[in-house]
Amino acid sequence: MAVNVVIIGGSFGGLTAAYELRRHLGPERVAITVISREHRFVFVPSLPWVAMGSRSLQQISFDLGPALARKQVDLAHETELHIDAGAKTVTTDRAERRYDFLVIATGHRSANEAVEGLGPSGGPGHSLMSAPEAEELGGAIRRLLDEPGPVVAGAAPGASCIGPVYEFAFELDHLLRRRRMRHAVPITLITPEPFAGHMGMGGAGTVRQLLEGALEERDIAYLTSAAVTKITAAAVETEGAGTVPSVLSMVIPPLGGVEAVAGSPGLSNPKGFVPVDARYRHPAAEGVYAVGVAVAMAPVAETPVPINFPKTGHMTEQMATIAAADIAARIAGGEGKTAELRARCVLDMGDQGVYMAVNPVRPPRDTIPAVSQGRHWLLAKRAFERLYLFSARHGRRVPTALGW
Predict the structure, then answer these.
(1) Catalytic residue check, 142
(2) Least confident piece of the model among 80-89, 113-122, 321-330, 369-378
(3) CATH number of 3-108+257-339, picked from 3.50.30.30, 3.50.50.100, 3.50.50.60, 3.90.180.10
(4) What is the pTM of this model?
(5) Listing from the earlier edge strand, what are the strands of the sheet with 80-84?
(6) 103, 151, 345, 346: which is the annotated catalytic residue?
(7) CA 189/CA 203 separation, integer angstroms
(8) Is there a catalytic annotation at residue 222?
């Protein structure tokens, strides 16, 4: 009888876990079901391009069902409601599903309520953490082009996804320069980082100097160790750095665990994130794994304004690969290997890109971080997007050489 594996989440972590587990074991050995509230996979790193109008959601997404079916993986288009780790069941809005092994790859809940005025429903502020928010921000950018004014790109205290803040600032700067409107739109970057390029991982080699220089040569003002407290239609208020005028504000919120996980006893910490060991197993709940943003990760270090450990798609895939290999090994009576997380990403600067690679993510590191700048990296980022979507859509092992 086949072992039953349930995976909650159809984004990077869930898709990678399903593909990797199927690569290890055929359908006669393991039955895999992916539970996903969304029926389409969205390439989240391209959401800034959606906001800028250079991509549509259709271009950066695909239907999960046919892709998973190619690997003989079932898709349950359902919403998870509760996990009973003792009974080994997942209750959704449509069924109760039993598992032998469970992979929690639910991603995050954006805690927009942590910043007064951060929308979409709670005020004029915008974010970039979901497809609807990216489209809404795109509408705000189009209005800005008709009625220019000051802009803020920022991250709230406790944020862990800082890269899109820099990408939004640089891409907007590039868009405005192409339209000869940059003089009418002051841009200010507000970040909880103690210095530009910290990114929640303590920096990466010379990226601090590179980003500071790029911000200054583009006339983008920046405030570090700044805590965004409130967004209004005319300004962004901060603690310790005053009020910054803004008619368009994009602020990345802190993240929390999804309700189904946070509300299931014994699975998560107070913020709703799942504690794991080096193989991404839950330390107390038998057969339960967690990967990606759902995992509880301690900050690299304390900072004057809190900033959390970064969680990228590249790191999520590493976690999912390790977890899938461990599940396969345990089914065969063994145990999988572990590995330190590394990070590789390409930051879009509008007219060029910056490549960063650190190994491991947490300093001190075994190798000197690689930092490189040039238009070729922007072209590589665009090519990687197409390669990733093609591979994932066709049920193929997802390439991770470049990272993001």
Answers:
(1) no
(2) 113-122
(3) 3.50.50.100
(4) 0.95
(5) 80-84, 89-92, 96-98
(6) 345
(7) 17
(8) no
